[in-house]
Design brief:
Layout (H helix, E strand, L loop, with lengths): L2 H12 L21 H4 L2 E3 L7 E6 L6 H9 L6 E5 L4 E4 L5 E4 L15 H20 L7 E6 L1 H12 L6 E5 L21 E6 L7 H11 L8 E6 L8 H14 L4
Parallel strand pairs: 2-3, 2-6, 6-7, 7-8, 8-9
Antiparallel strand pairs: 1-3, 4-5
Helix pairs in contact: 4-5
């Protein structure tokens, strides 16, 4: 098996993190044509009046469906989950194959060249979802970003460059894109809570990369707001224990009001 085949198998099967999960029926979210990602996003509605929202971004090669399914398992009745789908783009790391990706990836190490324009454009698209939710009555401090792998990376970057103080960030098995642009590139939101989780057996995004990210984040936001949890035996995926930690974090920072 050649390098390209390894990357093809590895990126498709591993970087998405939720390919094995059942699909949830897609929910069209009303008149959202002005927010392209919302038009086809999977939405898991709350069981009562929605006073908070979590926007969760999937990994490379995946879609919002699998993570919507996973998040349904930890749902809180007053919280809406929004799981948009990344558009298909050619990914350099995977021999320019077309696949759902938030931005191009040239490599998976801290020193790799990065798709700065693509990362910034993707962040603006996520900020457009935030603005849409704000206009519909959910204030920024009741909106949380989250994501897995590339989606977690984008959630971190978006939250740290957002003009609003958001409720928090759930960053699973990921890194901070354009890390050399921080802390000067930050919008100055020092007190945003961040939950970082990482599998100790992750060979795609090694746990030390996650640890380096946690240390970098402590220079951008209040270090007391950073929680970095690692999970023995966990590869580049999630686990019930990790999702329990995510639920606790959401409950803490998006309580019923």
């Amino acid at each position: 098996m050649g390098t390209g085949d390894v990357l093809q198998v590895g990126l498709n099967a591993s970087l998405c993190g939720s390919c094995h999960l059942n699909h949830l029926s897609q929910c069209m979210c009303g008149n959202n044509m002005s927010v392209p990602l919302l038009a086809e996003a999977v939405t898991v509605s709350g069981m009562e009046k929605e006073t908070a929202a979590v926007i969760f971004l999937h990994g490379l090669g995946d879609s919002g469906h699998g993570w919507a399914d996973t998040l349904t398992g930890i749902q809180l009745p007053h919280v809406k989950f929004i799981c948009p789908h990344a558009p298909p783009i050619p990914v350099t790391l995977n021999m320019k194959s077309m696949m759902p990706a938030w931005f191009d990836l040239m490599g998976l190490s801290p020193d790799c060249q990065e798709d700065e324009a693509g990362i910034k454009k993707a962040a603006e698209n996520i900020k457009a979802i935030i603005e849409h939710e704000v206009k519909n009555g959910i204030p920024p401090h009741r909106i949380m970003l989250g994501g897995f792998s590339q989606g977690g990376a984008l959630s971190l970057y978006t939250a740290l460059t957002c003009q609003h103080q958001l409720a928090g960030v759930v960053a699973l098995s990921c890194w901070l894109p354009l890390h050399k642009s921080f802390p000067s590139g930050s919008s100055g939101q020092k007190n945003i809570p961040i939950l970082q989780c990482h599998g100790e057996m992750d060979v795609m995004i090694p746990v030390h990369f996650g640890a380096m990210t946690a240390e970098k984040l402590k220079g951008i936001v209040n270090p007391q707001m950073i929680t970095f949890k690692t999970y023995p035996g966990l590869s580049h995926s999630s686990s019930p224990q990790e999702m329990a930690a995510v639920k606790d974090f959401i409950e803490k920072y998006l309580p019923r009001i």
